[in-house]
Specification:
The chain is mostly helical. It has two domains: 4-37; 44-178. 64% of the residues lie in helices and 6% in strands. It has helices at residues 42-48, 52-76, 82-115, 121-146, 153-178; strands spanning 4-7, 13-15, 33-36. A three-stranded antiparallel β-sheet has the order 2-1-3, with no helix packed on it. A hairpin with a 5-residue loop joins β1 and β2 (13-15). The radius of gyration is 21 Å and the shape is elongated. The two termini are 20 Å apart.
Length: 184
């Protein structure tokens, strides 16, 4: 069985066999480490170790940012690869609701596995902001799919900017939840 160690200074957890002379996170000597025992069942740990929610979150954030930047680029430089950029924006915007929905569902699953209950204030905030992001993503996807993109660039810039803001807020809340101890 793999023995885990935890840095007393920063809380970094590492396999004993991987630890060098210093903590890879904060640089203190290896003497600052103490034995650590996982507080989550093996079954729950296997699911969490897949990192499904964080991976899907990166797609959502990336699609939101690229949609905003490319749409803005088309407004600023209207002749610079316009058709190619607009085609890319449409693909991103039509794909965005799918990834937001998958991210929202994986976040709920992750929360239930990680915390067993997701009715804390932080989780509720994440679900509300995630729902707003999903509504924005659906609207941007529908608009991009059914309307000529070149005629709706300004609304697309604003909607995609709101998507980026929502994704950023979700990331900030998620970061604060990441360090919470697992329930037994």
């Amino acid at each position: 069985m793999t023995r885990l160690l935890r840095c007393k200074v920063c809380g970094y957890i590492i396999k004993e066999s991987k630890l060098g002379e210093k903590c890879p996170a904060c640089g203190v000597p290896k003497t600052a480490f103490e034995p650590y025992k996982e507080k989550v069942s093996e079954k729950r740990k296997k699911i969490l170790d897949l990192e499904i929610h964080p991976i899907l979150t990166h797609f959502t954030v990336g699609f939101s940012i690229f949609s905003f930047v490319l749409t803005l680029l088309t407004l600023i430089f209207p002749t610079f690869y316009r058709n190619e950029i607009l085609s890319t924006v449409v693909i991103l915007n039509v794909s965005l609701p799918i990834f937001v929905d998958l991210t929202l569902m994986s976040g709920i699953l992750d929360g239930k596995i990680r915390f067993k209950r997701i009715i804390t204030i932080q989780h509720i905030k994440k679900m509300i902001i995630g729902s707003v992001l999903l509504a924005l993503a659906i609207s941007i996807g529908v608009i991009s799919f059914f309307l000529p993109t070149e005629t709706i660039l300004i609304p697309l810039v604003f909607i995609s900017l709101f998507c980026v803001v929502c994704a950023g807020l979700l990331g900030l809340i998620g970061r604060s939840l990441k360090c919470i101890a697992f329930p037994n």
